[in-house]
């Protein structure tokens, strides 16, 4: 269920545990790309003055242009934990399919193949490929065997919202317990009305009257976590 | 065990693991971090175990995610590959690259033919009809070419040492960039590489034929003699790499296409890397040698030597240790 609903890619570690990677979607990647584009333009314009310094200056300029055109993302990805500046800002990183960090080979492949991803213009092929692929891969990612994932979640352990702990009236199956706790964890993201509306579907369980469904569900979540 | 008790029991260990990871990631070599380093594998295994437990016992998204992230980072530190760059470079250029090229000898000759046949054909045509060049190249570039190779002009005198550096940089950006594009466009079932080869063959053929027809060929050939070997063959090898990449889509053998790409694309990339190095060498020669005002005989001799060197390198390189 979770695999179908969420954009999670799972890899199995030799230590016998499954690790999940949160795959980045099109919008986050496009934003990161836009930021990187700005950075590159900034570098280009910052280097423009080199052209004033005669032949040697122009030589340096041309070499710098070549380096930035082809190797800007590669160097960042290899030496900066899979992150370009744009990806860093958006909390994204490039990793191999098995979740380990990218090396030269994978990074060069995925970035050089932007030539193909760009076709027929404005990264058309990349957009189509990203939308069709389960793991949001553009063509270069398919060839290099890489993923772009969210790594921003230095997920703080937030305490569940305050509520009077109360035991569920019937024993809950593990999946149901998980659903209740997930509700509590995410409840801060919804408006109170929406929270109440969702919790109201559990009316038989909460046994609450008109209002107070969500408070009861939150209470159960606290109880399930051990609060008494 | 309830979630909060679980966290309380392991909190201190997780924190140590996280601070160790942070120290390793940032590359700070502080004494405290180094002291904890031998603990890394054990801490990592503990975290993996905690993650499995937290999942199984459904301790909630936040906790599982935090443990998941810790395990991922720990794994990255534990399993990252490290070896001497210098030894790798020597192994690659000394043996692996020529071997790779020889392994692809069929594609190599196919690509050479795709480049040479249009070149010779169009050169012959352009020789009899010099205006043919105008169908291939725009008039402005032709004027530049003609000014460059005009026997009356003093090509070399126009270029001092600094200009040589500038031209070298120009050739790097242009020619190595062309290699990269030929390679990447090959992913489209090899079609991009094939078109690029034919296009370049037609282009060079038209220029050569045109200059033969108007009698500027001496200047042109003296100029290109030195670097032609490395540059042209590097372009063909880039196309070989691109076509091999495309062939993984056309004929993935007993694998899925994505599997074939992931497995064999690095091999194609190594071919491209070698080709890019050859093109860089060609750019060095083209920038600093080809325009030197020296007698034609010396230029031709060096050109022949370069061809010989390159053939020997690709033909014999890495054979001894391959046995």
Question: In this structure, how is the largest beta sheet of chain A organized?
Answer: 2 strands, antiparallel
End-to-end distance of chain B, in Å? 61 Å
Question: Regions of chain B with pLDDT < 50 over 5+ consecutive residues?
Answer: none
Can you give the helix content of chain A as a percent range? 40-55%
Q: Using only CA atoms, what is the Rg of chain B?
A: 28 Å
* Domain module count of chain A: 2
Order of helices and strands of chain A: HEEHHHEHHHHEHHHH
Q: Residue share in helices of chain B?
A: over 70%
Give the gist of this structure.
The complex is a heterodimer of chains A (228) and B (323). Chain A has helices spanning 2-5, 26-47, 54-79, 85-90, 104-112, 114-118, 124-132, 139-144, 174-186, 192-200, 203-206, 213-224, and strands spanning 8-12, 18-22, 92-96, 146-150.
Can you put this structure into words, describing what you see?
The complex is a heterodimer of chains A (about 230) and B (about 325). Chain A has about 230 residues and is mostly helical. Chain A has helices at about 1-5, 25-45, 55-80, 85-90, 105-110, 115-120, 125-130, 140-145, 175-185, 190-200, 205, 215-225; strands spanning about 10, 20, 90-95, 145-150. Chain A contains twelve helices and four strands; from the N terminus they run H-E-E-H-H-H-E-H-H-H-H-E-H-H-H-H. In chain A, the strands form two sheets. A two-stranded antiparallel sheet of chain A has the order 1-2. In chain B, about 80% of the residues lie in helices and about 0% in strands. The mean pLDDT of chain B is about 85.
